[in-house]
Amino acid sequence: MRLRTGDVDDLEAIMALERASFAGDAWSETAMRAELASPHNHYVVAEQAGRLIGYAGLRAPSGATDADVQTIALDKTFRGRGSGRMLFRALLQEAAERGVREVFLDVRADNPAAQRLYASEGFIDIGRRPNYYPDGNVDAIVMRLDVPGWAASRASLSPMSENLADVGESRQNPPTSVRISDKPGSAGAGAGAGAGAGAGAAAGAGTAAEAGACT
Ligand SMILES: CC(C)(COP(=O)(O)OP(=O)(O)OC[C@H]1O[C@@H](n2cnc3c(N)ncnc32)[C@H](O)[C@@H]1OP(=O)(O)O)[C@@H](O)C(=O)NCCC(=O)NCCS
């Protein structure tokens, strides 16, 4: 699996995965285009044999010390192999390198797989938004990560154990690191998907109906 920075050119492939992963509340193409184009956001995509199999987004306006996980999804066929964790860590690494101190996210109370992933990276529950999602009285669980603490725990791991643990692949095929870059685009054009738990909510506020995914 290869990771790289995602942008608007990935829109079509991302939308196919978005619709497959979030059947009832997928973001619209317009919202996703704005997400990918926003200079406040950083998207990472995962490719396998040249095909886009996953994506994850971070909202981290320049100079802000908090950020929001916007979304993450992996092609069903590739789940359960450590790829989602790898994608997620690439986002958190980006946050750390931008000087972000806290990352927030919302996750559906009926999504234990995502909750376990986030908790295992060090996110803690800080609140609940009752009946937040429009599709059936589902609460949002709000989570927060202390980024310097996360980065310190990552730094204490050896490169060898990292590669093996991350992707379950041999050392002959280690994960590719993610290039960090800002993308051009319209300021403040986010889809309103953000976790919205912290100050970052101001930059990405929106309703769950607009956003779907993690919100
Ligand atoms: C959430 C998602 C990205 C995780 O990707 P993944 O590649 O399947 O996850 P990984 O294999 O890297 O597993 C990472 C951790 O997630 C948790 N996890 C993953 N699948 C799980 C499952 N079926 N049940 C419980 N926990 C699970 C575990 O804690 C796992 O760590 P472990 O293997 O050490 O126990 C993927 O399941 C997905 O795309 N889901 C649909 C979209 C979605 O719900 N996105 C989140 C919106 S907030």
What are the key terms here?
215 residues, alpha+beta, Aminopeptidase, 7-stranded mixed beta sheet, 33% helix, disordered C terminus, binds coenzyme A
Brief summary:
It contains 8 helices and 7 strands. By secondary structure, it is α+β, with helices and mostly antiparallel strands. The protein has one domain: Aminopeptidase, CATH 3.40.630.
Walk me through what this model shows.
This protein is an alpha+beta fold. It has one domain: 3-Layer(aba) Sandwich (Aminopeptidase). The chain has helices at residues 11-21, 29-37, 83-97, 112-120, 147-155, 159-167, 201-204, 208-211; strands at 2-6, 41-48, 51-59, 66-74, 102-108, 124-133, 138-146. A seven-stranded mixed sheet has the order 1-2-3-4-5-7-6, sandwiched between helices. α3 (83-97) links the parallel β4 (66-74) and β5 (102-108). α3 packs across α5. The protein is globular. The chain starts with a strand and ends with a helix. Residues 161-213 have low confidence and may be disordered. Coenzyme A binds next to β4, α3 and α4.
* Cα gyration radius (Å): 16 Å
The residue-averaged pLDDT reads 80
* Strand coverage percent: 25-35%
Q: Order of SSEs, N→C?
A: EHHEEEHEHEEHHHH
Name the poorly predicted regions.
Answer: 161-213
Total number of beta strands: 7
Q: Percent of residues in helical segments?
A: 25-40%
Largest beta-sheet characterization: 7 strands, mixed
